[in-house]
Write a structure and sequence with these properties.
It comes from Saccharopolyspora taberi. Pathway: Ketone degradation; acetoin degradation. Belongs to the histone deacetylase family. It holds the Pfam family Hist_deacetyl. By secondary structure, the chain is an alpha/beta fold. It has one domain: Arginase, Chain A (3-Layer(aba) Sandwich), CATH 3.40.800.20. 36% of the residues lie in helices and 9% in strands. It has eleven helices and seven strands. A seven-stranded parallel sheet has the order 1-2-7-6-3-4-5, sandwiched between helices.
Length: 391
C-alpha cells in the first residue's frame, strides 16, 4: 500500500449495543469487517486492539459529573438525566465501559498518526459525533471524535480539520470547538429544517477568534450523488487550503444513502465511494497525508453500511475496489442468516455514476443555493471571494 495505515478493531467494540431494535445496531460493524476480509481488503493488515479511554482523556471534552452519571446509569434507573434513558439513548449494561472503549479506539488511531507510526488510521466503531459535554444525544454517549481531536491538541498538534459527511449535522464536534481557532469543523448534512438535530445552518461559522472555523453546508432532501459532490467541491477544498491542517479527521457516516431509513438524501454506494476518494485526496493535498478516519451513522444495516464502509476501508488502505466486484458467497450466506427477509445486494455497486458538474456560480437549483449560502457565509472569513468559482 502507498501509505502506512493502522486499522483499530476488536470485537469487543460490538459491546456498544443500544438494544436489539435500536437503529444503531452493532451488526453493521460485524458485517462490514466480514465483508472487507472476504474481499481481501484486510489481507496482511494487523489490526490494533483498543483500550478504554481514561477519565483524563474523556474530561477534555466531557464534564466529570456526566461521566459519573454514565457510570451509575445501569444501576440508577430512569432518573439519571443527562440525556440517558431516552428512546435515542437507552441505558445498557456496562455503558461507560463500552463508550469509553470506542473513544479509546479513536485515541489509539490518533496516536498512531501523531507519533509518526502511520499516515492514516481508521476506527469504524467511532464517529459518535452528537454527544455533548454534559449529555448524550443522537445514539452517542461519549463523543469520540472530539475526544480524539482534543487528545491531538494536547499532544502537540496545532491545527486539526474535521470533515463530517454524515447525513446529520456534526453538532457535538462543532459545539466542542466552536470558539477554538485550532480546529476547523466542516459538516455536509441534510438541511436542519428537515432533519434532527435542527442545527448546522450556513450562518453558524464559529465565535470570537474562531469565526470562520465552523463551516456548514445544509443540503435539501433528495440531494443526489452529483449534487452532493458539487457542493462538497465548491466549498471544502477552498477552506482546507486556507486552514492548512496538520491532520484531517473525517466522520464518514453512511446514512446519506438513498435507502437509509432515518433521512432523505439520495446518495448511492458509488457516490459515497467517490466522497471517500475525495477525502483521501484532500488529506494528501492539504494535511501532509495525515488522515484519521471514523465511522458514524448508517442504518441500512445489511444492504448499505457493509458495502459503503468496505469501500471506505479499501480507500484508506489504497486498495480501491472495482464497484462491479461481486460480493463473496461466504459473506452472503452469513448475511442471509442475520438479515432475515431483507434482500441483499450481490455486488459492490448501486449502478450509479457519481460524476458531477462543478459549481459555476449559477444558482438555479436548491443545491446551488445551498452552495451560494455556504460560500457567502464562510469564504470571506478566510479571505476568499465567494463569487469566484475558482475558490
Amino acid at each position: 500500500m502507498a501509505k502506512q495505515c493502522a486499522v483499530v478493531w476488536d470485537e469487543s467494540v460490538l459491546g456498544y449495543d443500544l438494544g436489539g431494535s435500536h437503529p444503531l445496531h452493532p451488526v453493521r460493524l460485524d458485517l462490514t469487517m466480514r465483508l472487507a476480509r472476504a474481499l481481501g481488503v484486510l489481507d496482511g493488515v494487523e489490526v490494533l486492539k483498543p483500550e478504554p479511554a481514561d477519565d483524563v482523556d474523556l474530561e477534555r471534552v466531557h464534564r466529570p459529573e456526566y461521566l459519573a452519571a454514565v457510570r451509575s446509569a445501569p444501576t440508577a434507573g430512569w432518573e439519571v438525566g443527562h440525556g440517558l434513558g431516552t428512546d435515542d439513548n437507552p441505558i445498557f449494561d456496562r455503558m461507560h465501559e463500552a463508550s469509553a472503549l470506542v473513544a479509546g479506539a479513536s485515541i489509539l488511531a490518533a496516536e498512531q498518526i501523531v507519533t509518526g507510526r502511520v499516515d492514516r488510521a481508521v476506527n469504524l466503531a467511532g464517529g459518535l459525533h452528537h454527544a455533548m459535554a454534559d449529555h448524550a444525544a443522537g445514539f452517542c454517549v461519549y463523543n469520540d471524535c472530539s475526544v480524539a481531536i482534543a487528545w491531538m491538541l494536547a499532544n502537540g498538534v496545532e491545527r486539526v480539520a474535521y470533515i463530517d459527511v454524515d447525513v446529520h449535522h456534526g453538532d457535538g464536534v462543532q459545539a466542542a470547538f466552536y470558539d477554538d481557532p485550532r480546529v476547523l469543523t466542516v459538516s455536509l448534512h441534510q438541511h436542519p429544517f428537515t432533519l434532527w438535530p435542527g442545527t448546522g445552518f450556513a450562518t453558524e461559522t464559529g465565535s470570537g477568534q474562531a469565526d470562520g472555523s465552523a463551516v456548514n453546508i445544509p443540503l435539501p432532501p433528495g440531494t443526489s450523488d452529483a449534487e452532493w459532490q458539487r457542493a462538497f467541491h465548491a466549498v471544502v477544498p477552498s477552506v482546507l487550503e486556507s486552514f492548512r491542517p496538520q491532520v484531517l479527521v473525517t466522520q464518514c457516516g453512511a446514512d446519506a444513502h438513498r435507502e437509509d431509513p432515518l433521512a432523505d438524501l439520495s446518495m448511492s454506494v458509488d457516490g459515497q465511494r467517490a466522497s471517500y476518494q475525495a477525502l483521501r485526496d484532500l488529506a494528501e493535498r492539504f494535511a501532509g497525508g495525515k488522515w484519521l478516519v471514523l465511522g458514524g451513522g448508517g442504518y441500512s444495516l445489511y444492504r448499505v453500511v457493509p458495502r459503503t464502509w468496505t469501500h471506505l476501508l479499501a480507500t484508506v488502505l489504497d486498495r480501491d475496489l472495482d464497484p462491479l466486484t461481486t460480493i463473496p458467497e461466504a459473506w452472503m450466506s452469513h448475511a442471509v442468516r442475520v438479515a432475515g427477509n431483507v434482500p441483499l445486494p450481490t455486488s459492490m455497486t448501486d449502478g450509479a455514476d457519481p460524476a458531477f458538474t462543478p459549481w459555476s456560480g449559477i444558482t438555479d437549483h436548491p443545491v446551488d443555493t445551498a452552495i451560494r449560502d455556504a460560500r457567502h457565509a464562510v469564504l470571506p472569513l478566510h479571505g476568499l471571494d465567494p463569487l469566484d468559482s475558482r475558490d
